[in-house]
Automatic annotation (TrEMBL):
InterPro entries registered for this protein in UniProt: PAS_4, Sig_transdc_resp-reg_C-effctor, Tscrpt_reg_LuxR_C, WH-like_DNA-bd_sf
Protein name: Helix-turn-helix transcriptional regulator
Lineage, broadest ranks: Bacteria, Pseudomonadati, Pseudomonadota, Gammaproteobacteria, Enterobacterales
Superkingdom of the organism of origin: Bacteria
Domain HTH luxR-type: 163-225
Length: 246
């Protein structure tokens, strides 16, 4: 990581970064109707297309995003800067695409809208070191999912990757259901498990979390970030688990 930071901070401006961005990509992003952007290793913007400016309702003639952090933007999303930067760091650490759902006031009318945000590691071609992230935003088109997400009536986000590698995939599904205030019998029904299996998994989950009650476990989840985790399996159009009253 130190070598990556050295490369990213060795130049006072962003010009060197454009040498690692293929001209074809810049042309594609520039003409795209979907938001695209690039950040350096410190989460400072080094590129954003017009669609991203439009998404945030920022006039590029009055404010240039390049060189700024999320908390410096004249946009409501600035309040979630720490989350965006954590997403950047985890993308770099995982060396893979990571996706989240962002629910914020977007576009010209600043209405609450859910967007998928995909982030990818950006590599320097010669050294193969990761020097930042590329992001791409796309609308959530599933009408049922949009309705369920917008029922929150407040800004927020959900991640499709767990904050830690502590729990198994099935345990994570149970955790999501628990945080939706579902009983163990209802969890069993929705996940296609027996009631006994769910009870056993809950015991294992509580033991791993060091929790002895639901309130302790809920606090653990808030502290670790599991309250923002959403299993991808539960995103099917027929899923009825997305009670966004968290």
């Amino acid at each position: 990581m130190n070598s990556i930071k050295k490369i990213a901070s060795s130049s006072p401006d962003t010009k060197p970064f454009f040498s690692v961005l293929p001209a074809q990509l810049l042309m594609l992003w520039g003409s795209s109707q979907e938001p695209w952007g690039v950040k350096d290793i410190d989460s400072k913007y080094i590129y954003a297309n017009r669609a991203y400016y439009h998404l945030l309702k920022i006039d590029p003639r009055k404010f240039c995003i390049v060189g700024h952090l999320d908390d410096e933007l004249p946009s409501p999303i600035s309040e979630f800067a720490s989350h965006f930067q954590q997403h950047d760091r985890q993308t770099i650490e995982h060396q893979d695409r990571l996706c989240s759902i962002e629910i914020h006031p977007y576009e010209a009318d600043q209405l609450m809208r859910p967007y998928y945000f995909d982030k990818y590691p950006l590599y320097e071609e010669q050294t193969r070191l990761c020097i930042g992230t590329i992001f791409h935003a796309r609308k959530v088109e599933n009408l049922l999912l949009k309705k369920q997400l917008l029922s929150r009536a407040k800004p927020g986000y959900f991640l499709f990757y767990p904050p830690e590698n502590v729990f198994t995939e099935k345990e994570l599904e149970v955790i999501f259901c628990v945080l939706q205030n579902m009983s163990s019998k209802l969890i069993a029904l929705h996940l296609g498990l027996s009631h006994r299996t769910v009870e056993n998994k809950l015991q294992v989950i509580y033991r791993k979390a060091g929790a002895h009650s639901l309130s302790q476990f809920s606090e653990y989840c808030r502290h670790k970030g599991y309250d923002h985790y959403m299993p991808q399996k539960l995103l099917s159009p027929t899923s009825q688990l997305l009670d966004m009253s968290l």
